[in-house]
Amino acid sequence: MSAPFLMWYDDNPKLTVAMKIADAIRAYRNRWPSSTPTLVLVNEEDVTEVAGVEVRGVNTVRRNNVWVGLDRERPLEHERRETRAEDAKVKEANVAKVPKLRGRKSEK
Question: What is the rounded CA–CA span in Å between residue 17 and residue 41?
Answer without folding.
Answer: 12
